[in-house]
């Protein structure tokens, strides 16, 4: 038995496909607005007939940096019935470009228009258990007919007020765990590999067969690598007032011209991570890993693993499962949200996941002690990292942080596989506990609000 509620998150909820630049500001709000649209569709005809307006109120960092993250566009997209994985990123960028254009949302057998004037970026404090809160209202002459409050908790995960995250019962997964210590105990007690335990739980959670789980993992990797390839080809500047130039294609060409230099390996890795991260910043389709803001780390490392280390698909899948296990533990016991944890919750977690991925791929027997050590080292050296994006855009320092997070992941993997994993004094559970406490103590100015740190350097850009 576990000592607390077991982890029942699917691998494919952690690795989600959707448009950038932010899972908590783009994918989460789109899903919340889509849910509200579904609720509008189930209203009784007499209530629907009274309605004359839809208002959206954004709080916390959804308000502070929502413009730069495209939160308003994401909300409109969700109300129009768009879903993250099938959204055309160019069409998404086109929403709300003209402030005079309004969009028709079905309510019963009629439609109600929504435009920028109905979306409120609220600066006042709001009594909410989470930093990223949005309230959607259906009104009739300023009287609320229907209201729903949503929390975007990082990685595209949302909670609706009144319907807290209700995990499945302990019996719903064959191997329930809530900590690394419990996970290791299960592996030992049942003589299981990490891959086997995770895929068995995944099959029960999703109802997918083993081959279906493997096929979906391959699809997720394909989505990641498509983002890398697109980013390596694209040139020019990224959207937004910063006018930041893309660097990935330049680094990639540089690396190809340095094939005999020991530095080429790192430059290739940097190019791959920047490529995916720049695609995210441009609003392209990426994979949350565990968030969109950190969606360059794992794609860069997996692309490197495939094209430089030549690992086969089975090995890459095993590495992805190990990465997911670390992501689950952080999400369950701390948070992967920049608004809750600062950038250590996003890049720190991605780096730990990347270190676990590399360690599992390099060791066919999948030593759980080495995987734990690699993840712990990576998180430990991201503790206290702030989230202070300039202008609210997922560009500076976010893009380069993805590359730095991947490099730290690689070094954590090297340290953990040096033969001294058993010498680690700090457990993964312990460092996640420290991470949670650090995030709690960190000033809100440094948690995705663009109110301090590098964000104040905007005038120099």
From TrEMBL:
<dbReference type="Pfam" id="PF03315">
    <property type="entry name" value="SDH_beta"/>
</dbReference>
<keyword id="KW-0004">4Fe-4S</keyword>
<dbReference type="InterPro" id="IPR005130">
    <property type="entry name" value="Ser_deHydtase-like_asu"/>
</dbReference>
<keyword id="KW-0411">Iron-sulfur</keyword>
<keyword id="KW-0479">Metal-binding</keyword>
<dbReference type="GO" id="GO:0003941">
    <property type="term" value="F:L-serine ammonia-lyase activity"/>
</dbReference>
<keyword id="KW-0408">Iron</keyword>
<keyword id="KW-0456">Lyase</keyword>
<comment type="pathway">
    <text>Carbohydrate biosynthesis; gluconeogenesis.</text>
</comment>
<dbReference type="Pfam" id="PF03313">
    <property type="entry name" value="SDH_alpha"/>
</dbReference>
<dbReference type="InterPro" id="IPR051318">
    <property type="entry name" value="Fe-S_L-Ser"/>
</dbReference>
<comment type="similarity">
    <text>Belongs to the iron-sulfur dependent L-serine dehydratase family.</text>
</comment>
<feature type="domain" description="Serine dehydratase beta chain">
    <location>
        <begin position="10"/>
        <end position="162"/>
    </location>
</feature>
<protein>
    <recommendedName>
        <fullName>L-serine dehydratase</fullName>
        <ecNumber>4.3.1.17</ecNumber>
    </recommendedName>
</protein>
<keyword id="KW-0312">Gluconeogenesis</keyword>
<dbReference type="InterPro" id="IPR029009">
    <property type="entry name" value="ASB_dom_sf"/>
</dbReference>
<dbReference type="InterPro" id="IPR004644">
    <property type="entry name" value="Fe-S_L-Ser_mono"/>
</dbReference>
<dbReference type="InterPro" id="IPR005131">
    <property type="entry name" value="Ser_deHydtase_bsu"/>
</dbReference>
<feature type="domain" description="Serine dehydratase-like alpha subunit">
    <location>
        <begin position="190"/>
        <end position="455"/>
    </location>
</feature>
């Amino acid at each position: 038995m576990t000592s607390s509620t077991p982890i029942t998150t699917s691998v494919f909820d952690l690795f989600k496909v959707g448009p950038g630049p932010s899972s908590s500001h783009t994918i989460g709000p789109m899903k919340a607005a889509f849910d509200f649209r579904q609720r509008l569709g189930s209203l009784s005809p007499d209530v629907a007939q009274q309605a004359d307006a839809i208002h959206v109120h954004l709080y916390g960092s959804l308000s502070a940096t929502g413009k730069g993250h495209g939160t308003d566009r994401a909300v409109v997209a969700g109300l129009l019935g768009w879903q993250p994985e099938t959204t055309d990123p160019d069409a998404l960028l086109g929403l709300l470009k003209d402030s005079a254009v309004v969009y028709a949302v079905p309510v019963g057998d009629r439609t109600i228009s929504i435009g920028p004037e109905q979306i409120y970026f609220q600066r006042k404090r709001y009594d909410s258990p989470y930093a990223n809160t949005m309230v959607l209202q259906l009104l009739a002459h300023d009287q609320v007919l229907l209201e729903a409050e949503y929390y975007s908790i990082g990685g595209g995960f949302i909670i609706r007020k009144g319907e807290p995250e209700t995990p499945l019962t302990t019996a719903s997964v064959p191997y329930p765990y809530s900590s690394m210590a419990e996970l290791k105990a299960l592996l030992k007690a049942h003589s299981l590999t990490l891959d086997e335990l995770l895929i068995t739980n995944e099959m029960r959670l999703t109802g997918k067969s083993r081959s279906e789980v493997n096929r979906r993992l391959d699809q997720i990797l394909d989505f990641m690598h498509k983002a890398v390839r697109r980013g390596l080809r694209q040139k020019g500047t990224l959207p937004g007032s910063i006018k930041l130039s893309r660097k990935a294609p330049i680094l990639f060409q540089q690396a190809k011209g340095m094939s005999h230099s020991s530095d080429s390996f790192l430059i290739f890795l940097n190019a791959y991570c920047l490529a995916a991260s720049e695609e995210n910043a441009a609003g392209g389709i990426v994979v949350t890993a565990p968030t969109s803001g950190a969606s360059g780390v794992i794609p860069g490392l997996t692309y490197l693993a495939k094209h430089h280390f030549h690992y086969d698909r089975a090995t890459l899948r095993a590495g992805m499962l190990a990465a997911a296990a670390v992501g689950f533990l952080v999400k369950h016991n701390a948070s992967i949200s920049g608004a809750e944890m600062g950038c250590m919750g996003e890049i720190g977690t991605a780096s730990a996941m990347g270190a676990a991925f590399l360690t599992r791929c390099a060791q066919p027997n999948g030593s759980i002690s080495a995987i734990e050590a690699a993840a712990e080292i990576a998180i430990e050296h991201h503790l206290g990292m702030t989230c202070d994006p300039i202008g609210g855009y997922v560009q500076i320092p976010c893009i380069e942080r993805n590359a730095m997070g991947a490099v730290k992941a690689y070094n954590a993997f090297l340290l953990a596989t040096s033969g001294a994993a058993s010498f680690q004094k700090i457990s993964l559970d312990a460092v996640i506990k420290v991470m949670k406490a650090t995030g709690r103590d960190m000033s809100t100015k440094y948690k995705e609000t663009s109110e301090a740190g590098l964000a104040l350097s905007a005038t120099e850009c």
